[in-house]
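@channel anyone free to eyeball this complex?
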Amino acid sequence: MGGRQEKLKGTLLSFVLAGALLLAWQVLTLPSAPPAEVIKGENAEYAQLMGMSSATPASHGFPSPSQFGHDAWQQLQAPFHNSGPNDRGIGWQLGASLLRVFIGYGLAVAVAVPLGLLMGQIPLLARALNPFIQVLRPISPLAWMPIALYTIQNAEECGIFVIFICSLWPVLLNTSFGVARVRREWLDVASTLELGWARRMWLVILPAAAPTIITGMRVGMGIAWLAIVAAEMLVGSSGIGYFVWNQWNNLSISNVILAVLLIGITGMILDTAFSALQRSVGYAE
Amino acid sequence: MQNDTGGITPLMHVQHLEKRYGANAPAIFSDISFTINRGEFVCMIGHSGCGKSTILNILAGLEHPTTGHVSMNGHHVTQPGLERGVVFQGHALMPWLTVAQNVALAVRARYPGMNKADVTQKVLHYLTMVNLQDAQHKRPSELSGGMRQRVGIARAFSTTPDMLLMDEPFGALDALTRGVIQEELLRICAKTGQTVFMITHDVDEAILLADRLILMSNGPQAHIAEIVENPLPRNRVRTSIHHQPGFYDLRNHLVDFLVRRSALASQTSH
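replying in thread with the prediction:
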């Protein structure tokens, strides 16, 4: 099978690339020549305080892959530990972010899908709402933050609101578009079969528009996951975004790298889940 | 028009249909009147643009005429209904459902509350009728054009409509497939006594299937130029019909109409 071999080649190349990147990382973070001779007298004490004694070779602040591996392992030993707001495990923080996203995103889907179904079936409604959507849609989720903080005043709810507002638009637009584009013939079949409103919706319109709706939901989830990190950096007392910022303030670059990696992996898992969902509702005409 | 041939009862009355898009626009067609008797197979022939499909949609209740009206069983047709089954030009099957599920959708609509086993049995019955019992778990995208159209026919028959409306059902099929399905349709109609109104632009198809042919003049402002009774007896067979006396007379008459007189008829009416 040529296709399978191509796939294998691709995977192999991915591993090679990963290895090359790690190697480059290692080379770039190699300790430079020890500046031990320079430090003398009263400076030696200072140097010792700063952890730059001749025993530890001077390094860039940036961790090498092996250092990162060590630190990450430490962090991942107890991902759910919770010793106060400033010292919570990375798993705990990731969970807090995911919970916020699921609530905000869930609310957005709960609003956008029914409204989109209506807009798709009532062109007048779609035309009336379209200017609002077009103005509101390009607003960065973070731009909502001051307004949200002033009106909602609760940081937790602000985060959820930001997720809600940024994932609303793609779901709404795609639902409305998908429903408006359901083929006339299928609706005619539903009419000649005298399907009632609910069965027409459930048996014809929703399955016909499902691929477009799920695409919108997938885009919405992607945006939500992008926005949550930034939102939590601003308001958070928890969450992966807050964790990144907190670790940056601690100058714990290893933890920052770990968090960034986890954000990427989580986003990928979410997207893969939606891609599977998309396949399951897809159909070939 | 000859509707009173030996105790046959009219099922559908079509009276003075006219359709315009916009008050000042010319009529697409006007003064369309005919009746369809119970158990009769009526074909409407005409060039594209004469509003045939619109007429069929009006009979189905999917569109409304500007003036005139349609009644069936003494009731005005104002909206689509299960008593008028439609076989659409494109098969109009739901691509996300299997063949069996497509037919089951119609069966459930016709018999609400029917239990699962009975639905399955009915579905199989109608799929067997069009020789598709082996394809029941396939999706429409996996079928050939002819098979899809047969599913469409099975779906329409499964609701046991009083009237079957077919909008150029075989237009997109190759000649061989078309012939096979035409024979199937003929056999099913003979067995069930189904009343059919079908649109076609294929003269041979019309002669084979129709008991009566409605010839449309060219649009715009199309009208019924002529209604022709098929003189060939009802047990027509595709493979031998062209040997039957009268076949070529009728065929020549229809072809002459389509190539010359349909245009003349529309000119004289202006």
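from a first look: Chain B has two domains: 8-83+163-173+193-270, 89-160.
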